[in-house]
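Below is how a single chain appears once it has passed through the pipeline. First comes the sequence as given, then the structure the pipeline wrote out for it. We keep one example in the README because the format questions we get most often are answered faster by looking than by reading.
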Amino acid sequence: MKTIWEVFNRIWIIYPKILLKYGGKRFSNYILNDVEIFFKKPKLKSYPRFIDLALTDNCNLKCIMCLRTTDPTIELNELNFKQVRNIIDKVSEYATTIQLAGGLGEPLLYKHIFDAIKYSKEKGLEVLLTSNGTLFNNKNVNELINSGLDYLSLSIDAATKETYEGIRVGANFEKTIKGIKNLCKKRKEERVNLKIEFVPVIMVGKNLHEVLALVSLAKEVGVDGIAFSDVSYWVGKESAENYAIRKTKDKKEIKDIFREAKELGKELNIDVRLPPLELPSNKIVCYQPWYMLPITTKGDVRPCCGVHNIFMGNIFEQSLEGIWNSKEFVEWRRRMNTKNPPEACIKCPMRF
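Resulting structure:
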């Protein structure tokens, strides 16, 4: 909470919503967590309120910027549904939100995906899902609409067939867009309160030239917004070095495109969010290790969403409190407030 407006927004808008929706332990945990974030406490009395749970590493695509593609030695895994329920049971006492991601895969390939959504809702959690959007047949669309899902983010990185299929290798552009349109149409007909957004990864030399067209496509298919991101540094050296906007020395073209994308978003009445072109040189502006618990398909807990090979513990082998305040996690948070933060934090494009 860096500004008076943010404090006001939390006290008069966010906190009342949390109290009405969750109450009890979740409400008090949310406020305590905010206080500990504000004072940057390395050891916490509050518990994670956002859970990022990877269900499967299986995928139907070979995207050029994905770790599954850039690192052929990576080990793939999948949680069984008993493990998923066990994790949800452990975290739902304090958490308000769970993101059911695909790990390194596509969550709609997980055979218990709709059971996982429904079980999370039964536990009173807000449920987010991240998908590549290629598997929206009529059955999956109906299941999603009736599942109680709150938010769906779609990894659509281009507005033309050639560019899209060159990035999301194995996907069919026309089929994917048709499925998304069908989902948005069904949502409107059923009057379902499900927020849907595009979440494209911007890659210089690959799809930067289609940013404006992507904004127009988002409006055309009927999603609510579009949130662009830069390439994550850990997806592979080639991807991070060659495609990342933060690595581009001359950013004039990018600045112009971003400005036009914002203007187009206002014109089309669609929310457009863009990543920063520059990262702070030393300052780490990130609070994920204070409120988020990212869990892999093996049950390993990462310090944040931007680190894939550093772990704070294992949810099946340790208690939630034992992991959350382990010496590794406490030291990670402590270092983030020093002039010698973890190396992963210095490189990460998500630290803003």
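The radius of gyration is 20 Å.

See the next section for the split statistics.
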